[in-house]
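call fold(seq) -> tokens
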Amino acid sequence: GAAKTDTAYTGLNAAIDVVSEIKAKLVAAREPGVDKLKINKEITELKNQLVSTATSASFSGENWLYRDASSATALGTKEMVGSFTRSASGDVSVGTLEFDASTSVLIDTQDSSLGQLTKGVAVEQGTAVGTGTTNATYNLIVASGGTAPSGSTTVELTASTSDDNIEGMISAVDSMLTDLTDAAATLGATNKRISMQDDFMADLMDVIDKGVGRLVDADMNEESTRLKALQTQQQLGIQALSIANSDSQNILSLFR
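ret:
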């Protein structure tokens, strides 16, 4: 569970950074006189990076950021072990954590409306800003082999892209960024919960080992003192035998 959440969380954070960079590029494209085509080339490469990030964020055969053509069903709630409990009576129970992976899917190749970056985001632009009525829909990425959502325009720039359209794209990307941040926050909390439980179990194992040691391990100070006394006794015995042996030799020399 820790490895899966780590992988997805790392991928989400990387995606957030790239989407933030795309938003910055769109803001730069709003500047009068800027070369929109050059900026679009940079945005295209950033999109490629997003696809690479999403497709590579897999562990143990699971990818919570990308749904490819081989996945028959959409990503849903993922369950993972979050705690292990042993009561005073010896009963064991395992607690689980859940994460809704549908909120973290960046690219869905089968249903573009399920991907945070492939779905269409409705925004207000031009004269509709502030009216509460959306008049444009944008998606950031068209998945390989997939199609853009009906009525949605892919975020990309041409030399003739109007300022109103650029502002609408900025609003759409900003909305995607908010959704990604929310998903990363939820996943990060789950990841932290698993990490804390892992640390707690390691500390608990150390404490239990120490407690058992107090019951069965020898008192090293006492045993060390006892060993030292025994060694001293052995040395005194050897010295006594040596003295006795030398005395007998002295007595025999008198008869020579």
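Residues 16 and 180 are 7 Å apart (CA to CA).
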